[in-house]
Amino acid sequence: MRIKLFVSHVRQRGSITPALLSAGSTWHARPLAASVCTVVPAAAVATGYSRTFVRPMRRLTHQNQSETVGKRHPRSLTRQGFDASVFRKRAGNRDRGLLGVLYPERILRMIHTQNEGIYRALIAQLDKLARHNRQESYKTRQRYYEAMQRFCRFLADVYHLQKLSNISGKHLVAYVRHLQENGKAASTIKTELAAIRFWHDQISNTKHKLPSNGDLSDQAPLERRRIGGVDRHWTPEQFAAFTSACREEGREDYAAIATLTFYVGLRIHEACRLDTAAVEAWERSGLLTVKGKGGRVRSVPVTAAAAKQALRERKAAVRRGHKLFVPDDVATDAYIYDFQAFLRAYRPNQGTNPRPLTHHGMRHSYAARQYREALDGGATEYRAKLEVSKLLGHGRADVTDVYLAAEKSTQTDSIKMCQ
């Protein structure tokens, strides 16, 4: 096939001559894969021009390609799988230049959309948000970025939308239907929607509030996952053994994190976000306000004496205005990684649990206690699960079933004994 390219700039050996422009207007390409092809300019061989910026002209290929060509930030065709085996190999860039092989300094990301310019404008806005964002883990941010890229391509092709701040509910409905038509699973679609809402929350001047999955159910219904739980709860003896190990190793902060998870139900990143201001607000109101998954803020009561003591001790151990656990010169993700490594090294025997104990398993213990207390207080089973779900930072009663696997196993054992 022939791909027509326009040579826009030359990095070395002077300006472009008219002969080079005329001779180099047609470039021969041999496809290697769906995303990479070899390019050999005949004019470059003749004149020695080897390092140029190139830009593919739109709608000049032999067919419409809907898939992505290239990777996110390619620096050279060599990294993209450029096949130079058909040429005589020589060492050094100078010899490669004499061979006339094209080594561009930077290749623009080639997404074959009907409106490539609009797509690039949307990606530029997304990149600006990504540069200033530090929420969630690296893998989560990368997963959400890739999902938003796909949504931007959809917006450019279908709606010609030029600003991310103009995203509204109709775009989500159309995108959900588009994904369903392409055979995507409900869990995948929900993750894509979570990514869109995540980046939409980073925009300061949005014009519309995005609907929840429940609000989309009338126009684009999504089937719910069937949730089954695995028993991961910690017994009081296992919890006491771990906190004792933390104190023996001089890690009072690790013991305090475990205490807040076991008695208050905090996630590891929620505990690491706590600062002295949060403790002061808790002392005034009796509720500890934390920012959880997806930026959701909730206030939870602190009733256990051990949890109250842990908060007060950590507040006294740091300066006012600073975080309770993460030092100023340590990244939060690095601190969490070290804590998880310590837990794997010092966690007690898993006992009857089918899997080794994890930090998240302490939330299972908290959920089981709160569920029993709600039932003892006269709440119905559904109401008890809903209350526990809110305490854990979720919004659905059925999610609580994941945390109540220990309760189900206990009820099963009781039934077998009665029989």
Can you lay out the helices and strands and say which pair or pack?
Elements: E1 2-10, H1 18-23, E2 26-31, E3 37-40, H2 42-47, E4 52-56, E5 68-69, H3 93-99, E6 110-111, H4 116-131, H5 138-159, H6 169-181, H7 186-201, H8 236-248, H9 252-264, H10 268-273, H11 276-285, E7 287-291, E8 297-301, H12 305-317, H13 332-346, H14 361-376, H15 381-392, H16 400-403, H17 405-418
Antiparallel strand pairs: 1-2, 1-4, 2-3, 5-6, 7-8
Helix pairs in contact: 4-5, 5-7, 8-9, 9-12, 9-14, 14-15
Summarize the structure.
With 419 residues, the chain is an alpha+beta fold. It contains 17 helices and eight strands. The strands form three sheets. Strands 3-2-1-4 form a four-stranded antiparallel sheet. A two-stranded antiparallel ribbon has the order 5-6. A two-stranded antiparallel sheet has the order 7-8.
Describe it.
- With 419 residues, the chain is α+β, with helices and mostly antiparallel strands.
- It has 17 helices and 8 strands.
- Helix 5 (138-159) packs across helix 7 (186-201), helix 8 runs antiparallel to helix 9 and helix 9 runs antiparallel to helix 12 (305-317).
- The radius of gyration is 29 Å and the shape is globular.
- The N and C termini lie far apart (76 Å).
User: What does the average pLDDT come to?
Assistant: 74
N-to-C order of helices and strands: EHEEHEEHEHHHHHHHHEEHHHHHH
**Spatial sequence of strands, sheet with the most strands:** 3-2-1-4
**Inertia-based shape:** globular
Q: What is the helix content?
A: 40-55%
